[in-house]
Design brief:
seven-stranded mixed beta sheet; Alpha-Beta Plaits; four-stranded antiparallel beta sheet
């Protein structure tokens, strides 16, 4: 396998020799100032490599040699805390003084401690009842930020011919705007009910939970005429695991431990453009 090592800072040469030794690799090829590819790495050494990288705030990934971005046809992304840096529902709740309460539920759900995502979402949205819908626009303009490397990653994927899917347990108010802003091909998310300019505390229609995310990826691949093995899926929370399990390459981005453990690749320190250095 190839072993790709990445750093958010220029990668010091002092790390290369010990990593070649730990991985039982043959040689190192620089990718750019922030990354190096070690050839002929032994994936049986994953534990030692991961321990070294964790100590030095590096990201590591064992990948198949000659793997190309153009081998894939779809990149599917979670939104909150993946494509963007915030959890939108937590920021909306801040406008009615309930951010701490809602954030605690969100965090527990993403860690996999709350097994019923539908119930947790319904409970959180219910707390927003009566909030002026203008709060959504304030969150989008004032607080929503793309994750580091998001635009570079998406641009490269689009140039390589991949289609893009944003599938979220969050809300269409935000996915629709990001679709237009970033030129995304497909989106699926939850719809907040708004009556007379205020949130009713309810979600309209089917809730986009873990199984719906996975189904959306499958249906999108079917629409594109490609197998799910040609999809890349990126996520951070436990409700992304089923979708990530359907994909040919699963990437945990600054994710919860349960997601990092299940993913093919974990990017804990670098930006979303770290995906590009794997190819």
């Amino acid at each position: 396998m190839n072993l790709v090592i990445q750093s958010p800072e220029p990668l010091g040469a002092a790390h290369v020799k010990p990593l070649i030794a730990l991985a039982r690799g043959s040689q190192a090829q620089p990718i750019d100032p922030y990354a190096v590819r070690i050839l002929d790495a032994n994936p049986a050494q994953r534990g030692d490599v991961e321990a070294y990288c964790a100590t030095h705030a590096l990201d590591c990934a064992f990948v198949r040699p000659r793997l190309a971005l153009s081998d894939f046809g779809l990149v599917a992304m979670d939104m909150d805390s993946t494509l963007i840096t915030i959890e939108c529902i937590d920021e909306i709740a801040d406008f009615c003084g309930l951010k701490a309460e809602v954030s605690a539920i969100t965090e527990a759900a993403m860690r996999g401690e709350i097994k019923n995502f539908d119930e947790s979402l319904i409970a959180r949205v219910a707390l927003l009842k009566g909030l002026d819908a203008d709060a959504l626009e304030h969150v989008y303009i004032e607080r929503l930020r793309l994750s580091p490397g998001a635009e570079a990653m998406l641009g490269a994927a689009q140039r390589a011919g991949l289609r893009t899917l944003l599938v979220s347990g969050g809300f269409t108010f935000f996915t629709d705007r990001l679709k237009a802003r970033l030129g995304l091909d497909f989106t699926n998310a939850n719809t907040l009910e708004i009556v007379d300019g205020k949130l009713t505390g309810k979600v309209v229609g089917e809730i986009v939970n873990a199984s719906v995310k996975a189904r959306t990826l499958r249906e999108t691949c079917e629409h594109l005429g490609i197998p799910t093995s040609r999809a890349i899926a990126l996520g951070d929370g436990s409700n992304d695991l089923e979708m990530m399990g359907e994909a040919g390459l699963s990437v945990a981005f600054r994710a919860k431990p349960v997601v990092r453990a299940a993913a093919d690749v974990a990017l804990n320190h670098v930006g979303l453009d770290g995906l590009l250095r794997l190819f």
